[in-house]
Structure formats: C-alpha cells, structure tokens
Design a protein that fits this description.
- The protein starts with a helix and ends in a 10-residue tail after the last helix.
- The radius of gyration is 20 Å and the shape is globular.
- The protein is an all-alpha fold.
- 74% of the residues lie in helices and 3% in strands.
- Strand 1 and strand 2 form a beta hairpin.
Length: 297
C-alpha cells in the first residue's frame, strides 16, 4: 500500500511538471497573441502559422550550423525571421485594416493563415522534421521520485523569463507605455504627435516574435510538420479568452490551467485527456464570462 501511494505521488508530481512545461510554451505563444489583441484589437488567426514558421526556421538554422551553436542560433534567429515576416505583413496589409470590424479582421487573418501554410509547404515540403537539444539538455533528472526531461526544466525557466521581460517592457520602457496608452485611446496618442502607425507596427511584430520564439523552443520536443499551427491557435485563443482579452498575466493563468488540466487528463483518463482542458475552459467561462482577470477590451 505504501509503495502504491509513493508511485501515485511520483506520477502526480511528474505530470504536474510536464503540465507546467507545456503551459510555458502555451504562455509564450498566447502572450504574443494577447499583446496584439490588447494593443491593436486584432484577432490574429495567423498567429499559429507564425509559430509554425518559427519551428521550421529553427530547423533550418540548426541543420545549417549544427551542434550547440546551431541550437542557440536557432532560438535567436527563428523568432527574428518570424518578426521580419510579420513586419512585412503589417506594413503592407494590416496597417490598412485596423479600423475595420473584428469579423473582417478575423476573416482576413484566416486567409493569411492559409497563405502562410501554403508558403511553408512550398519552402519546406510536407515531410516531418526534428532538431536535437544540446547534450547538456539531454537525459533527465529525478524529481518527485520520477524522471523528468532536462529540456523541460529549461522550458519551465523560459516562461517566467519571457513573462518578466514582457512586463518590464510594457511598464518600464517608453515605447511600452506608449503602446499601453494607444490601446486605451489611440486618437489621443496621435494628437500629441506620436506616430501611432509605427507603434502598432512594433506591437504587432513583438507579438509575432513571441509566436516564433514559442515555435523555436518547442521544436526539440515535437515533430515539426504542417498542421502544427492548428492546435496551438485554438488553444491560444481559448487561453486569452479565459485569462482576459489582452491581459498578459491572464494569459499566464490561462496557460497554467490549460497545461495542467491536460497533463492530469493524460494521467487520470488517457483516452479522453483532450476533454479536460476544454472542460476547464467551459467551467471558467460559466463562472467568469469576461475572463479570470480584467480584460482590456
């Protein structure tokens, strides 16, 4: 009986850590989506495609350079590739549409998602790809009496770093404060002589950069393939909805709920594990239709 309790505790602890590491990836991606929603009021369905481009770009950099250097370069360059793509899209397309209705923006970004998906297929093909983490991230450590991958520990640290960095940017830098002001009253920001268009461009690129970073970080843990954007964009929209539209800390809370319930679902009822996070979303929205934290909308 004692052994059974020990195994149960080990399993719970292990799945908790797995859920937390998954939640950190979800947070990094959804925080970018939440930032764009908060500042630009754009429901960017193509956010998941940029996440996928980040993963494929990381694969390209890693295979070109190789080794530990290739891995770290991939984490740096892949999000920058996504940022460049998003900058071109914003300056050529999005900047003309900010005043349109949300439904039109939703349809536009859906069309952009289809275009980006086809471009990924043309550039990288339909084959499965993968990259390897550096040697010091391989293997596992013993936590709660069970093995836990070292790379997942790295992901556990990456999430809070991104959260603190984004908070410092929005609350301690001039452009971050201007972006927050533009989210509340863009006409007033423009009236004091600030080029709101370029503020929006920077906010959009930053949000998309985080999508690319999430794709690069997740690349060593999954198969890099077409269609990997579909699941993440559904989950990211649900996360920002239950957390509070445009609220960064709400995105963190929503990601934790989604990641942990999904992980415990695998432990408790593997055949229906996918139901658990969506059931949690329904419960949250029934109790708090506007999200757990204050929405900026």
């Amino acid at each position: 009986m004692e052994a059974a309790h020990a195994v149960t505790f080990a399993a719970l602890g292990s799945h908790l850590l797995v859920g937390l590491s998954r939640a950190m990836i979800l947070f990094i991606v959804s925080s970018g989506l939440s930032f764009v929603l908060g500042v630009l009021r754009v429901p960017n369905v193509a956010h998941g495609s940029l996440y996928m481009i980040g993963a494929f770009s990381a694969y390209t950099v890693f295979t070109a350079v190789g080794g530990q250097t290739g891995f770290w370069l991939a984490l740096v360059l892949a999000p920058l590739v996504v940022a460049a793509v998003s900058f071109v899209a914003e300056r050529s397309l999005f900047c003309r549409l900010y005043e349109r209705e949300h439904l039109m923006l939703l349809l536009f970004t859906f069309a952009l998602m289809l275009i980006l998906d086809d471009l990924v297929k043309i550039i990288w093909g339909a084959d499965y790809r993968s990259i390897m983490a550096p040697d010091y991230f391989k293997g596992s450590v013993n936590i709660f009496g069970s093995s836990f991958p070292k790379y997942n520990l790295f992901l556990l640290a990456a999430g809070p770093v991104v959260a603190v960095g984004l908070w410092l940017f929005t609350n301690r830098t001039k452009i971050g404060k201007i972006a927050r002001a533009a989210a509340v009253d863009r006409e007033m920001v423009g009236a004091v002589g600030i080029n709101v268009s370029w503020v929006f461009a920077f906010a959009f690129v930053l949000g998309c950069f985080l999508a690319g970073l999430g794709g690069a970080l997740v690349a060593p843990t999954v198969s890099i393939t077409l269609g990997m954007d579909h699941d993440i964009i559904i989950e990211a929209f649900l996360i920002v909805t239950i957390g509070g539209l445009g609220n960064m800390w709400g995105a963190m809370v929503g990601s934790l709920i989604f990641g942990i319930t999904q992980s415990f679902g695998v432990l408790l009822w593997p055949q229906f594990a996918i139901v658990f996070p969506y059931a949690a979303v329904v419960i949250v929205l029934l109790a708090r239709p506007t999200g757990l934290l204050k929405s900026v909308w």
